[in-house]
């Protein structure tokens, strides 16, 4: 049995902290996608893009490889109150291989704690990502 220990570079930790602080009062959705480098076992940004819509995020995610998405999405709750939830989307497509599934599952809490998100939401496909807006309103 393989044992994987993933880590985050200080640079990635700093990026996550800055992103969290910069989005706390955002009026538009903002998201960044992270991956685990299979060679170094380090969690890092998939690209330098800051995504502004759930549709853009869904389009950017690969069809068969897991990812983490750190998302700040302003919503008006059913009570009428404005809120900006800061969540981690744990993207795990059904057709991911088992090694990657284990790797990402093992590092989920590390990513959650380092990103300091309020909630982890599991998504499996493009439709789930787009439906997050409704889940955030209902939360």
UniProtKB/TrEMBL annotation:
Its main location: cytoplasm. GO terms for cellular component: actin cortical patch; nucleus. SMART domains: ADF. It holds the Pfam family Cofilin_ADF. Keywords: Cytoplasm, Nucleus. One of its GO terms (biological process) is actin filament debranching. Coiled coil: none annotated. CDD domains: ADF_GMF-beta_like (cd11283). Belongs to the actin-binding proteins ADF family. GMF subfamily. This is Uncharacterized protein. It comes from Orbilia oligospora. The lineage of its organism: Eukaryota, Fungi, Dikarya, Ascomycota, Pezizomycotina.
